[in-house]
TrEMBL record:
<keyword id="KW-0732">Signal</keyword>
<feature type="signal peptide">
    <location>
        <begin position="1"/>
        <end position="19"/>
    </location>
</feature>
<dbReference type="GO" id="GO:0030313">
    <property type="term" value="C:cell envelope"/>
</dbReference>
<keyword id="KW-0201">Cytochrome c-type biogenesis</keyword>
<dbReference type="InterPro" id="IPR017937">
    <property type="entry name" value="Thioredoxin_CS"/>
</dbReference>
<feature type="domain" description="Thioredoxin">
    <location>
        <begin position="1"/>
        <end position="153"/>
    </location>
</feature>
<dbReference type="InterPro" id="IPR013766">
    <property type="entry name" value="Thioredoxin_domain"/>
</dbReference>
<dbReference type="GO" id="GO:0015036">
    <property type="term" value="F:disulfide oxidoreductase activity"/>
</dbReference>
<keyword id="KW-0676">Redox-active center</keyword>
<dbReference type="InterPro" id="IPR000866">
    <property type="entry name" value="AhpC/TSA"/>
</dbReference>
<dbReference type="InterPro" id="IPR050553">
    <property type="entry name" value="Thioredoxin_ResA/DsbE_sf"/>
</dbReference>
<keyword id="KW-1015">Disulfide bond</keyword>
<dbReference type="InterPro" id="IPR036249">
    <property type="entry name" value="Thioredoxin-like_sf"/>
</dbReference>
<dbReference type="GO" id="GO:0016209">
    <property type="term" value="F:antioxidant activity"/>
</dbReference>
<protein>
    <submittedName>
        <fullName>TlpA disulfide reductase family protein</fullName>
    </submittedName>
</protein>
<dbReference type="GO" id="GO:0017004">
    <property type="term" value="P:cytochrome complex assembly"/>
</dbReference>
<dbReference type="Pfam" id="PF00578">
    <property type="entry name" value="AhpC-TSA"/>
</dbReference>
Length: 159
């Protein structure tokens, strides 16, 4: 049942991403790559203090470990282009930043497993084996490392 629920969530998320996610720097439409072994998808806003606090740690983690481990990682802003630009000017990050441009962020976040709609929200997924770990609240580099390793271990067990 868990795999079925994950597949349904992934399908909904893919449908949302085609229409409503754009790369921040150039507004190019974006989709979460289904073939990525591990995906880290972080939802944030410039007005969210815990979001602003976690991003430098997440950026350092991605630069030192995530890229080398071929982890797909993106930060999806639920904010205006102006607010995102202002924040990133003072706090640049090493991973791709997208913006949600749709009209119903609450429903969109539910498709990624965020039932309460809180920020920051991160989901660590391993689509090939159906693993999904939602994390509501501020994320540290250590917690992120642990969640990515857990995702990889879950897939090794299913082989």
């Amino acid at each position: 049942m868990k795999l079925h629920a994950f597949a349904w969530t992934a399908l909904l998320a893919a449908a949302v991403s085609h229409a409503d996610f754009v790369r921040h720097r150039d507004n190019a439409p974006q989709t979460v790559p289904a073939k990525a072994q591990v995906q880290v998808i972080n939802f944030w806003a410039a007005w969210c203090a815990p979001c602003r606090k976690e991003m430098p740690d997440m950026s350092k983690w991605y630069q030192s470990k995530g890229k080398k481990q071929k982890v797909f990682m993106t930060g999806i802003a639920l904010d205006s282009a102006e607010n995102v630009e202002k924040f990133l000017h003072t706090t640049p990050v090493s991973y791709p930043v997208w913006r949600y441009t749709g009209k119903d962020s609450r429903n969109m976040m539910k498709t990624f497993g965020n039932k309460v709609g809180g920020l920051p929200y991160t989901v660590i997924r391993a689509p090939q084996c159906g693993h999904e770990e939602p994390i509501v609240g501020e994320l540290t580099a250590a917690r992120l490392d642990q969640a990515v390793q857990k995702a990889r271990a879950a897939c090794r067990k299913k082989k």
